[in-house]
Amino acid sequence: MAGNLLLTSPLEACSFIRPKELAAMQAAGMAAVRDLLFMLPRRYEDRRMFDRYDSLSSGAPVCLRGRVVDVGWKGWGGKGGKGRGRYVEAVLEDEQSLGNARFSCLWFSMPGIARMLCAGQEMIVYGRMKPYGKKLSMVHPDFELIREGEDNSIHLNRIVPVYSGRMGIPVRRLREIVWEALEQLSPEPEPEIYEFVPGVPCKTALRDLHFPGSAEARDKTRRRFALEECLAQQLNVAYRRRRAEAVPGMQTAGSSLLVRDLAASLPFELTEAQKRCVREIYRDMKAPRSMNRLLQGDVGSGKTLVALCAMLLAVEHGYSAVMMAPTQILAEQHYLKFRQMLDKLDVPVSLVTAERKEESHISFGGQGGIVVGTHALLYGKNVPERLGLVVIDEQHKFGVNQREKLIAREERPDVLVMTATPIPRTLTLTFYGDLDVSILDGMPGGRGKVVTAIRTAKDREKVVKFVRDQLEEGRQIYVVSPLIDGEESRKGKAVTKELDEWKALLPHVDVGLLHGRMPAEEKEAVMKDFRDNRTSVLVSTTVVEVGVDVPNATVMIINNAENFGLSQLHQLRGRIGRGAYKSYCILMTEAQPGDEQWEKLHIVETTSNGFDLAEQDLKLRGPGDVLGTSQSGLKGVRFEEWLLDVRLIHRGRELAEAILTEDPDLKSAKYRPLRFLLESGEMKRVAN
């Protein structure tokens, strides 16, 4: 029966929650009823019809109902479960299967299980059947005991939610608490909660979220909440875009003579895609409003050259331009490349990092100039006067607040953000919806073909021979491993050990070492030796993932390739094939054909287009891992399906635009509850 609880009611108002349970919930960060009701099930079990033991599909998780016919300690060692080989085994009889099939459930190092179970009890178990000894068993399954006469309870004969047990409250008890909260939720609307998604009201939908009548009802409800989350995010994006468009900007470009001079000095011609992107940027910079543009393209598509053209447009018009890179190595590389390319154009270039500052050109006077730097540029004294253009390389490596700190000034500069990681369309619409987008969909000519192949430990000798052949031809080699040394808990090869192995394998070759713990000056020296071909083999962590450009390097060996995401593997592969030579990416793995990890690597082996790989990566790993939750604002997202659905995003954008058209600053009583979304700029539920 409906009660007086509101979504905003404190958990203390729930008399059905016991003191110890309340303390556990509060320790987990729960404060109000809405926190409890938006604690999503990690999965559902359809307890209207259980799986049968005699119809199991190999390897798939199953939900079985059975009666305990025997339980006790098994194995060897001391009594009471103290021996290393001792485990608790419960033998269950599946009465629904042909011949009343029996199966075992095993628990290791969990002596309390033996005290909980006894013959005659009915249980529901969930897990995977795996061979153990000579029979199939479930090892450490999720389980619930069925109480006598509860066939009509909330725990049986329905689709039931299964929650995480992280708070120490049994799943069964959590189910009862959520059910009671839904029962006592007031049907009256709450003025402090604005229902801005058309359709089923939030409170009605919550029941289907936890106790759906069907899988279809559950999925429909999730889409309803996904649209609500999407709208909240799109509202923030649309508001930022409108606010940026309303700020008077500077005209930071006039003529384009420097760009023409640069193009004429190059030993190659810009691709049509590069020319198109430069024209789009030029139009923005000539307009009397602030440019906010995203430049994205595949690995090696020439984004840095497009950015340099944009900076020259600003310099020619008397403004300074700043490029912020995420690492010392990348900033140093951009700086050296720009110095070389602009040598004859008389354009000053300066470098600013935490380790190194070339102060001579920070003040360019009346003449424009270019400053390349790292996070050190976030401090005002390192930014030149008359700043007309800010270029942010590898945007996803920086937080939104860092970007704002660099560009927030009385005369707002134009902004060009770049990413070398192709972004799936849905995530572009979501997280860069306030930016205009330029896409480099062509590749410069004169590049060698890149061949990718999966190899295992048994192929090691062939790989070493191939490396020797490439070295004899004068080429250079990258060897990338996931770890710095062997002390980390994660499984994988360490660069320190790899260095010793390659030095032993190639005694007459200079082998370099590069990783993130090295001092900046040492990293810079190592990269310079590799660029100048004084080092033939570079053993490194993924610190070389972005921006490193050595045209003579033709082989990229990636150890424990299964540990990396698809996009990261593509980024690493992008360090080769930058010259005219045919190049080879070798994915060393411990996975075996048929494994899920092997299939992932096969996608990289057969797909060269970064945008296609990004879409596959999104499906495999989900948005949080692809973008990085700390930088993308994904921490508050509960219903990730909207991040995979262009239609939901467009619908969320339509609703957001309609709201802001009606009330641009959300000051009316109708929309005032949404204002915190605009002020916080974070992904949160509107009810928060």
Automatic annotation (TrEMBL):
Residue intervals of the Helicase C-terminal domain: 459-619
Cross-referenced PROSITE patterns: HELICASE_ATP_BIND_1, HELICASE_CTER
CDD domains, per database record: DEXHc_RecG (cd17992)
The UniProt record lists the keyword Nuclease: no
InterPro entries recorded: DEAD/DEAH_box_helicase_dom, Helicase_ATP-bd, Helicase_C-like, NA-bd_OB-fold, P-loop_NTPase, RecG/Mfd, RecG_dom3_C, RecG_wedge
GO MF annotation list: helicase activity
Domain annotation Helicase ATP-binding: ranges: 284-440
Keywords: ATP-binding, DNA damage, DNA repair, DNA-binding, Helicase, Hydrolase, Nucleotide-binding
The protein's name in its UniProt record: Probable DNA 3'-5' helicase RecG
Organism expressing this protein natively: Akkermansia biwaensis
High-level lineage: Bacteria, Pseudomonadati, Verrucomicrobiota, Verrucomicrobiia, Verrucomicrobiales
The encoding gene: recG
